[in-house]
Amino acid sequence: MRHHTVLHVVAKILLPLILLFALYVQFHGDFGPGGGFQAGVIFAVGLILYGLIYGVDNLQTAIPPGALRVFMASGVLLYAGVGVLGIFMGGQYLDYGVLAHDPLHGQHWGIFFVELGVGITVASVMTSLFYAFTS
Amino acid sequence: MIEVLIDEAVLGLMLIIAVGVLYQRNLFAAAMLTSIYSLLAAALFVVMDAVDVAFTEASVGAGISIILALGALALTCGEQKARPVFALGPFLLVLLTGAVLIYGTSDMPAYGDASAPIHRHVAPRYLEDSRGEVGPPNVVTSVLASYRGYDTLGETVVIFTAGVGVLALLGRRRRKAAKPAEEEA
Questions:
Q1: Cα(B61)–Cα(A29) distance, rounded to whole angstroms?
Q2: Per-domain residue ranges for chain A?
Q3: Which CATH number do you get for residue B36?
C-alpha cells in the first residue's frame, strides 16, 4: 500500500477520530455501552489501520514492540494492583469500596483503574499480535 | 412481532453466510464472509438489547480477528488445499451431535421468559441494588468490573497469556522470514 492517495488522506482524517472514540468508550463505559475491552480493541484497530496504510515499520517506530510488551504486563499488574491496594486499605482483594472515604467513590475509582488496566492490556496484546503476524 | 421477523431474517442470513463460508475455497473471501457473519451477530445482539455484547462482537469478531486472519493469510497462502473427500463417519458424528444439541434445546426456557432460572438468581439484585452498591448507571459495567471482578481479572490474564503465547511462537523471527510476505502484501 505505497501510493494510495485516497487511502492516505482518509486514514489521516479517521485515525484521530478512532483513537478519540476508543478513549470515549474507555472512560464513558460507566454510563453507556463499552468498557476497557472494547476500548482496547478499538484503539488497537486504529493503530493497525495506521500500520496497514503507512507501513508496519512506521508504526513500529511510533510504538516499539518492546514497549508493547511492557504495556501488556502493566495492564494486568494495574488490575491486580488495585486489588492488592484494597487489601492494604483494610478491605478484601478487589473490594473497591475501601479505596476512598465513601464506598461509592471507592467503587468508582476501582472500576476506573480496573477498566484502564483491561484496556491497556487488550490494546497492547492486539497490536502485538498484529506485529507478530506481519513483521 | 416485528422483532421476531428481524430475528428470523438476520438468523436466515447468518445461515446462508455460514454455508457460504463452508463452500468458499478462496480463504480471503471466507475471512470476509466470517466478518459479515460477526456483523450480523452484532445486529442480532442489538435487537436483543445487549448493546455491550454487540459492541464487543462488532469490534472483535467483525474487526480485529479478521485483520489478524488476513495477516495470517499474508504469511501463508490464500487458497484452500484440495477439498477433502466425503467421509461418512465424521458426517454421521456431526449429524448426531447436532441432533443431541437440538434435543437439548427443548428443555431450555422459552426465549425472553422472565421466570427463567437465569433471571431469578442474582440478576434482580444486580438490577435493583447496583446503583446503590456500586454506582455506575450501566449495570453491565458494575457486574463486569465490580461484582464479577475476579472473572474479569481472569479474562485479562487470559488475554495477556494469549499474547505471550503468540509472541513466544511468532515473535522471534523478526526480520529474516518477514520480507517476502511483506512484499506480497
A1: 20
A2: 5-134
A3: 1.20.120.1200
Beta bridge partners of B26: B79
Q: Is the ipTM of this complex over 0.85?
A: yes
pLDDT score of B178: 47
Our CA-based measurement puts residue A124 at a distance from the nearest CA of chain B, in whole angstroms, of 9
The angle that helices B149-170 and A103-134 make with each other, rounded to 10 degrees, is 20
Question: Domain of B53?
Answer: 1-80
3-state class (DSSP) for residue B148? coil
The chain B residue lying nearest A33, using CA atoms, is B52
Is B112 a residue whose pLDDT tops 80? no
Would you give per-residue pLDDT tens digits along chain A (135 residues)? 557 889 899 999 999 999 999 999 999 888 888 888 999 999 999 999 899 888 889 999 999 999 999 999 999 999 999 999 988 888 888 888 888 888 888 888 889 999 999 999 999 999 999 888 876
Number of compact structural domains in chain B: 1
In a domain, B137, yes or no: no
Residue B111 domain-assigned (yes or no): no
The C-alpha R_g of chain B, in whole angstroms, comes to 21
Separation between Cα atoms, residue B185 and residue B78, nearest integer Å: 11
Interface of A with B in 33-72 (CB under 8 A): 33-35, 37-38, 41-42, 44-45, 48, 52, 56, 65, 69, 72
A110 and B CB contact within 8 Å: yes
